[in-house]
Amino acid sequence: GGSLTKLAYYSTVQHKVARVRSFDHSGKDIENEPLYEISVQEEITARLHFIKFENTYIETCLDFIKDHLVNTETKVIKATGGGAYKFKDLIEKKLGLKVDKEDVMTCLIKGCNFVLRNIPHEVFAYQKDSDTEFRFQTNHPNIFPYLLVNIGSGVSIVKVETEDKFEWIGGSSIGGGTFWGLGALLTKTKKFDELLQLASKGQHTNVDMLVKDVYGGAYQTLGLSGNLIASSFGKSTTADKEFSKEDMAKSLLHMISNDIGQLACLYAKLHNLDKIYFGGFFIRGHPVTMRTITYSINFFSKGEVQALFLRHEGYLGAIGAFLKGAEQDNPNQYSWGENYAGSSGLMSTSPDVYPMQRTRSGTFDMLEMDRLERPLVNLPLLKDPSTYIPDTVDLTDDAMARKYWLTCFEEALDGVAKRAAASQPDSVDAQERAEKFRQKYWNKLQTLRQQPFAYGTLTVRSLLDTREHCLNEFNFPDPYSKVKQKENGIALKCFQSVIESLDSLGWEERQFALVKGLLAGNVFDWGAKAVSDVLESEPQFGFEEAKSKLQERPWLEDSYSQWLQRLKEGPPHKCALIFADNSGIDIILGVFPFVRELLSRGTEVILACNSGPALNDVTYSESLIVTERIAAMDPVIHSALRDEKLLLVQTGSSSPCLDLRGGLWGLGRARQRQTDLVVIEGMGRAIHTNYYAALRCESLKLAVIKNSWLADRLGGKIFSVIFKYEVPCK
């Protein structure tokens, strides 16, 4: 580009992963044997890296490429933008590679499609005077069509209809170059960023003629406000005085932004488009340009169209050029997720926050994305994927909740680091790595205190996911693996007696006991400090003790009577999809008896567990071993497995929370099996996320609130119960 070189490259990263494997127990006394074997193995994963260098340091950039990225097989380097021509000879000489230039607009569109599809909180609206500077948008499942307004030296307006179909529909010669050029003539300031700095301090009304300057007030007949600009630089024709550089820069900025805004609105209206994304060096995360463009679009569209900006706008061309070079590997067949541990985050526009980071090298310094081995799809049972928001509370907006949860995660950090180190007793550097993890996550939390919008909308889910990313970065794939192994083994020994106790009850009494068992099992959550403290200090704390902790009915949210009535009077459900939460007592003594009851009613069951570890949540591979062991004890589970009436699937997630919009695979069967009941259990999946999720079928959302602050906020006490039975409107 004109001032920055953006580099995109692919690498393979070696990570440790935890694996579980069932022991061969044939002919052995297994009473005191562990339930399964845990091993830590190396796994190769794919990662995309995006880094920025200022063009002043192009030699440093090329040294980095030569030292780290070029091997003997590399013959060609893909490049796009003005620098692909300007630095072509230097690149070829320094790297010994042929520069293959790609079309700028094609690369921009490819890059834009990629980030819109893969990064949930990519798009934001800018609101300078609001409590929340950046208002992040929910990604629509269908990203097309949209208008891309690229403001470089001039303005290009492109209509994008599909992955490969786009057309240039208009533009203007009055763009960023005009602002820079005229600004330099007016103020003698040669640097673009300095010109914007002047504009941010200026008062345009000293230079511009307003409607009230012409008519003495508002022009009521046409509905024009008195403060509206009637003529840019209009006062300079009559005023006999010198104007300040700041005021002239501000007037010029408004003039050009308003012109671009009106042009974009007219094209959007002409082509019936309501999504306009702005990019180019004129935008580049500068608050003053985002603000003026936003105002202009709002004014000319009468509030019907929103000016939208992209977190990673500066990388679009580089991403597109990379994708062009990697076409034979078909990168679009995969889904990619942002790695919070390696990405630097969107910086605040306030000069008071981290002044060292405000050197304008663009909004982003570094972005990393990890490849997911299969494409992610929406849960087909969502009522409307386009309006679904997984998270219950937006911490970017809610300052009180944000302060509480950031403090909560800070206070828990030492315990998590200690647990991580203890999970690898044979590793000589476990303590050192645990300390590096602690420091990295602590720094992330401090960044989020200052700029909560750094990675998009801040939520409890994103705080948990960032912690998991940091743990993985320092090779702690599953700190709770030994805890889960032990708790699964203990719970399995109690399974038959729990079933016998349930089977001895009358039908109605049994239904309540099953629900109470589900809730009691959900108490065993090592992610909740109130519970982990009890589990650390009272090893004998078990299923019955958990039941005694539960709130008595009526519960904080209580639609159990409606659920019971549905079971009594309605036909059996065709198929239930159950999202399990914790290992041990939760899945074995809580979920499986409930699953068994549904199977006995003639309902097929799909049991969905995390693909990867998070806290003490049960993983898919652990659930296979647990289910196999339960089937050996219980004929109902055994026959359901054999006849495929009980299916185990993985969600594609490694989070304690649950995003039904784009975080799932393996759940296509939910549609095939005519699923008419979804059960979501646990604080992370049913309260922090999905509390307000609307589904096409009946749903049960149940959890025990194991956090006193959250309980108080919801009007209850610790160990209050949420039991939410919902039936969709016809």
Strand content: 15-25%
Per CATH, the class of the largest domain reads Alpha Beta
Query: What would you call the quaternary organization?
Result: single chain
Overall geometric form: globular
Largest beta-sheet details: 7 strands, mixed
What is the domain total for the residues?
4
* CATH H-level homologous superfamily name of the largest domain: Uncharacterised protein PF01937, DUF89, domain 3
Secondary structural class:
alpha/beta
Total beta strands: 22
Helix content, binned percent: 40-55%
Q: In the CATH hierarchy, what is the architecture of the largest domain at level 2?
A: 3-Layer(aba) Sandwich
Number of helices: 24
Mean pLDDT, to the nearest integer, reads 89
Give the low-pLDDT segments. 348-364
Spatial order of strands in the largest sheet? 6-5-13-12-7-8-9
GO molecular function: ATP binding; hydrolase activity; metal ion binding; pantothenate kinase activity
GO cellular component, one term: nucleus
Subcellular location: Cytoplasm
Protein name: 4'-phosphopantetheine phosphatase
Description of the structure:
One of its GO terms (biological process) is coenzyme A biosynthetic process. The structure is a single chain. The chain is an alpha/beta fold and 730 residues long. It has four domains: 4-118 and 316-372, Nucleotidyltransferase, domain 5, CATH 3.30.420; 124-207 and 243-310, Nucleotidyltransferase, domain 5; 399-474, AF1104-like, CATH 1.20.1700; 491-726, 3-Layer(aba) Sandwich (Rossmann fold), CATH 3.40.50.10880. It contains 24 helices and 22 strands. A seven-stranded mixed beta sheet has the order 6-5-13-12-7-8-9, covered by helices on one side. Helix 14 (481-503) packs parallel to helix 19 and helix 20 (620-633) crosses helix 21 (635-642). Residues 348-364 have low confidence and may be disordered.
